[in-house]
Amino acid sequence: MICNLQFKNLGFNNYKLQITNYKWIEGFKMLRIASKNQTRQRVHDRIRKKVMGTPERPRLNVYRSLNHIYVQLIDDLKGVTLAAASTADDRKGARVTGGNVASAKMVGKKIAELAKQKGFTKVVFDRGGYIYHGRVKAVADAAREAGLQF
To answer: Are residues 23 and 59 in the same domain?
Structure first.
């Protein structure tokens, strides 16, 4: 959105200003509104200061999009993804739609099986800044039921 603003007291006339994600409050005062994803990213950064994956106990990271859910086992010391599973990986006929709790449970079981094959039984859970509810909780519960400890 481009607006024409007049700043006569500053010596500018018809100064064009690029405005994105701002809300008009009173007059020319604007308040920046953070999107939900920016807020989630800030929360995730706070969590990442405390949670770290090691070669013995990797980090189980969850990313939730509108249509799919992605889970990774990550060794943060080496910066390597050890195993990954998602609803986008499966064949279309074999999966339920990716944006629901049932498919999140299937992904939780799948990542637990991959972790066991690689020799991991204990992981550190990273909810990715999302609220521990719904699909994120379903992934965690299914992984616990399949044998992962966290």
So the answer is: no
- Lowest model confidence (mean pLDDT) among 2-16, 18-32, 131-145: 2-16
Do residues 17 and 64 both lie within one domain? Answer: no
pLDDT of residue 55: 93
- Percent of the chain that is helix, strand, coil (3-state, to 5): 30, 30, 40
Indicate whether 41 belongs to any domain: no
Torsion angle in degrees (nearest 10) through CA of 136, 123, 70, 76 = 130
Residue pLDDT, tens place only, 64-110: 999 999 999 999 999 999 999 999 986 666 656 778 999 999 999 99
Give φ, ψ of 149 to 5 degrees: -110, 125
State the distance between the two ends of the chain, measured CA to CA, in whole angstroms: 47
111 closest CA partner among 77, 82, 78, 133: 82
Instruction: Quote the domain boundaries for residue 6.
Output: 2-32
**137: which residues sit within 8 A by CB, 6+ positions away?**
none
Q: How many domains does the chain have?
A: 2
**Residues 74, 108 share a domain:** yes
